[in-house]
């Protein structure tokens, strides 16, 4: 693997220990079977396909290597991570990939927001939710070429076009100014690549009185991102701008929350913000025909992007309202 770690099968109770310079994996006999890789007691990777859970896969898989690289680098600059207060050091963006910086900032926020008195979370957002983005079929080729972009980069949106308000919210939410005000520009920049791309948080496990809606105005193709994107994502109860969300009401997926975040009146969805560069590499699958039907040719073109494509149906509380869930049915 290019480092001092070695791979060895371990039972779950050993994997949960603090390991020394070792990557371990195990087969879980839980209802949702998974394979997890650990480095120094920190979970760096998980896979749902048990056939892939073996030493050769862990050594050869780019995503596992990326996670391992992150874990090693994180240890090197952990102290520095908490030394800056007002502005994100330029050297971080110059030296490291925005995906890496995003994970650092999310780790920092999680540590700072953690409540040691909370023993068990009111809801496991890391495990029991999905990050889903609605996009128009017509822009899939652009996404293939350029990745998923935010309005700072594209200067356009199907929602509220508000560069200044979003910049202020994003800086407040993450707890540091991404760049100085006089350095901000609309368009392509490393800082804007770091800034989040907006999507939906969809609950996979029911919670009393909560139905998180999905607005189809953004497109008829739904992108389901890999679960590991939550390691560099935040979320809010409702629209982050309209609800005037701030640092304290923007949560990370790893937080143990003693109370489920409550939606304000007139807001019926949870928003997720994915930080750092976001490309097709980060996509788990596509959902189609959920609300509006696509042609066989369009579905074929989506399959050409190299990701699984599932038919799905939308669940509604009332047909007059927006759907609250998208359920995959069969694979195309």
Description of the molecule:
The protein has 332 residues and is α+β, with helices and mostly antiparallel strands. The protein has 2 domains: 1-79, no CATH class; 129-331, no CATH class. It has helices spanning 12-15, 55-60, 62-81, 90-95, 98-113, 140-146, 151-154, 163-174, 190-194, 296-303, and strands at residues 7-9, 23-27, 35-39, 42-47, 129-135, 197-203, 221-225, 233-237, 251-252, 270-274, 283-288, 309-315, 325-331. Strand 1, helix 1 (12-15) and strand 2 (23-27) form a beta-alpha-beta unit. Mean pLDDT is 78; it is low at 1-58.
How many β strands by DSSP?
A: 13
Strand order of the largest sheet: 9-8-10-6-5-7-11-12-13
What is the total domain count?
2
First-last Cα distance: 36 Å
Strand content: 15-25%
Taken in chain order, the helices and strands follow as EHEEEHHHHEHHHHEEEEEEHEE
Indicate the low-confidence ranges by residue numbers. Answer: 1-58
Instruction: Specify Rg, calculated over alpha carbons.
Output: 20 Å
Helix content: 25-40%
Largest sheet properties = 9 strands, mixed
Class based on secondary structure composition and strand pairing: alpha+beta
Instruction: Give the overall shape.
Output: globular
Count, helices: 10
**How confident overall, as mean pLDDT?**
78
């Amino acid at each position: 693997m290019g480092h001092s770690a070695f791979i060895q099968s371990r039972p779950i109770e050993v994997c949960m220990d603090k390991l020394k310079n070792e990557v371990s994996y195990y087969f879980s006999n839980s209802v949702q079977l998974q394979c997890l890789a650990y480095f120094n007691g920190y979970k760096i990777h998980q896979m749902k396909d048990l056939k892939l859970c073996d030493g050769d896969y862990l050594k050869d898989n780019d995503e596992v290597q990326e996670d391992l690289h992150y874990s090693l680098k994180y240890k090197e600059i952990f102290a520095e991570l908490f030394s800056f207060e007002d502005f994100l050091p330029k050297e971080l963006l110059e030296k490291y990939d925005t995906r890496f910086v995003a994970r650092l900032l999310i780790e920092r926020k999680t540590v700072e927001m953690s409540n040691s008195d909370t023993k068990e979370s009111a809801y496991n957002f890391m495990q029991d939710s999905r990050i889903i983005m609605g996009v128009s079929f017509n822009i899939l080729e652009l996404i293939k070429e350029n990745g998923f972009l935010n309005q700072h980069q594209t200067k356009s949106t199907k929602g509220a076009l508000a560069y200044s308000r979003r910049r202020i919210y994003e800086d407040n939410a993450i707890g540091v100014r991404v760049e100085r005000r006089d350095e901000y520009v609309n368009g392509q920049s490393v800082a804007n690549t770091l800034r989040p791309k907006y999507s939906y948080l969809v609950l996979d496990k029911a919670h009393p009185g909560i139905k998180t809606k999905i607005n189809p105005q953004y497109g008829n193709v739904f992108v389901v991102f890999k679960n590991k994107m939550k390691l560099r994502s935040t979320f809010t109860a409702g629209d982050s701008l309209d609800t005037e969300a701030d640092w304290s009401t923007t949560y990370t997926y790893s937080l143990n929350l003693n109370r489920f975040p409550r939606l304000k009146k007139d807001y019926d969805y949870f928003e997720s913000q994915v930080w750092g560069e976001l490309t097709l590499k980060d996509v788990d699958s596509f959902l189609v025909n959920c609300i509006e039907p696509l042609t066989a040719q369009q579905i074929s073109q989506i399959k050409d992007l190299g990701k699984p494509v599932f038919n799905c149906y939308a669940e509604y509380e009332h047909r007059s309202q927006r759907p609250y869930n998208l359920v995959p049915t069969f694979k195309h």
